[in-house]
Amino acid sequence: MARPLLIDGTSTVYQRVLTRPGAALHDAPGGPVSSHYPAFQPLYVFARQAGWVQVGPSSAAAPAGWVEAETVVDWKQNIVAAFTNPADRARSLMFRTEEGLRGFMEDEALVDTQARLIEKAETGMLTPEDGVVSIEPENFVNIRDRFYILPILDFVEDLHPMTYDPNLLLKVASVPLRDELPAAAAEASSSAGSFDTGVVFVFDTTKSMQPYIELTRKALAKIIFDINGTDIGDRINFGIEAFRDNPQAAPGLDYRTRQVIPLARRINQLPVLEAIDNTRAATVSSPGFNEDSLAGVEDAIRQTDWDQTASDDPFDARYIILVTDAGPKDPRDPNARSEIGPVEIQRDAEDRNIVIMTLHLKTDAGAANHDYAADRYRQLSRFAGRQFYYPIEGGSEQAFEDTVTLLVTALTDHVRMALGQARVQAPEDRDDDLEFLGHALQLAWLGTREGTRAPDVFESWVTERAAEKPQALAIEPRLLVTKNEMATMAELLDNLTRIAETTRGEDEARDFFRQVRGVIAQMAQNPDRLVATDADSLGGALEYLERLPYRSQLLQTDETRWMSGPMVRREIIDGMRQKLTQYRKWLYDPSVWTALYEGAPDGEQVFAMPFDILP
Question: Residue 60: which of 609, 599, 543, 545 has the closest Cα?
Fold first, then answer.
């Protein structure tokens, strides 16, 4: 069977092209037209000859026919761009040329020029002299909820002219994958004001936590009674997840995680208060100071019915509030359930539009644990580039109650903002990050409700970091991986960790790479496993990662780095294991995969994978 052509200098990376609008498929060069492709259909290249390209949608099937070379554009990187939430930055302008984008970013009057061009773009008054071909949507388009292809055709690694920090200038093309408006979005667009919120508290119910459980009930009760029977009360609902630790290590703990009361739409929230009343801290101690908080958060993310499947009316804003006085179990801890860390859990949550907030009770008893716990919870509690970690110094009960009140009141104000109502928090009491969060979630909701699409342009240049605010990421590059490619990553990491874990001493460590090459050679016998057999680094086996504007620990691990010491090897192994666990979750989650063409085999469905979770 024919295989696609390889990119020069590689042994596993196939040539691909994207169709221009109106691209016609011919049975043979110069032959009659058999069909037309939609714009930006990714295709594999099987042959090239005198102005014609033989193409097909699958690398594992026969080519479909021929297209004229001028009707397609080479797609060398297989990477796509995803807009971030524009809540705290200006909308991205998309320039016709790289020079036009550079000139704009180096303009001394950038902010004024930007405002003028955005206004012209919004009113349809752009002229060719402006150099702008399109603008980012006003509302947020979540690529996981509404898949779109914004292929990156080229990139230039550069410095941002404001701060000289690294920045990418990206040449992109854009068109929504599907033209129809999703049914849910179409229905929602006719019912303004449908915005509502789901909040799941994740309680540490280990021995020391009883006073804080009662304080949460007290703070929550006051807010619930204030909003009960109002429009706001109808639009904010609660659930509770509890966690402890490994009950096999301390049988009196009874459970590791438990759903105390599910998140659901209720006429009133009194059942939630009753559930808190009935929640009791453990009477026995856990093994070690750290608790399995990550298991509790994972279950809140994955087992909560955020989409309200019975009514097909998902919660529009989604929050998890973690309350604990201890750090999370490290994945290496034998009593930890999860093999992934806070970074992977946070990324999964944000892709599902779930905000994780942490109230960390820094009690005197855990003083030696505070720095470790704070570092992990800061990683966990991020959303759209902002951090939602709230340390409670000394475990102060008053400070804790005040913080719970601040957070839940702010979340009710997010609903008021969406409904156009006055907020109850006084301006001096408002938190900038929570203000941003309310705006970001509203933009995401409007994007879904109104069926917002990525801008419909062909080729343009955009900046990865906001032109006027370099600390804000405007465009997030992602790798468009097939399920077969992710399975290859998972199989390689599985083999590498298995071999690495059995390595003992310097001699065996030195032999590690010989064993790895044997594994790679064996994997290469499966045509679906695209691995380079002559790699001299671990990441080099996955050639499609080496050409990305991305550098990872694995990609840079060669024999010299591996032999630099047992602590370095331990860090590499732990990183591989955590990513392997996340890949397996994605591989078995049908909601993350999209078919790019009708009849696409399972292995060729795609997922826009964030760079920071690549090997």
Answer: 599
- CA distance linking residue 52 with residue 43, whole number of Å: 14
pLDDT at 561: 77
pLDDT for 117 equals: 95
User: Is pLDDT above 90 for 25?
Assistant: yes
What is the 8-class DSSP label of residue 69? G
Task: With CA atoms as reference, report the closest residue to 244 among 358, 324, 360.
Answer: 324
E strands, 150-208, in order:
151-159, 166-172, 175-176, 197-204
Contact yes or no for 77/548 (Cβ under 8 A): yes
Q: Which residues of 602-612 are buried (b: 16+ CB within 10 A; e: fewer)?
A: eebbbbbbbbe
Distances, alpha carbon 494 to alpha carbons 218, 242, 298, 330, 342, in Å = 48, 32, 22, 19, 20
pLDDT digits (tens, 9 = 90+) for 231-255: 888 889 999 999 999 999 988 899 9
- Outline where DSSP puts E strands in 303-368: 317-324, 354-362
Task: Report, in angstroms and rounded to the nearest whole number, the Rg of the chain calculated over CA atoms.
Answer: 26
User: What gap in Å lies between CA 496 and CA 502, rounded to an integer?
Assistant: 10
Q: Within 13 Å and on the Cβ side, how many CA atoms surround 20?
A: 10
pTM of the predicted protein model:
0.67
Residues contacting 229, CB < 8 A, separation 6+: 268
The Cα 600–Cα 481 span in angstroms is: 14
Model confidence pLDDT, tens digit, residues 431-456: 888 888 888 888 777 766 666 665 65
Spatial neighbors of 365 by CB under 8 A, at least 6 apart, are 208, 325
Q: Look at residue 87 and give its three-state secondary structure.
A: helix
DSSP string, 476-491: EEEEEEEHHHHHHHHH
> Helices 98-105 and 110-122 sit at what angle, rounded to 10 degrees?
130
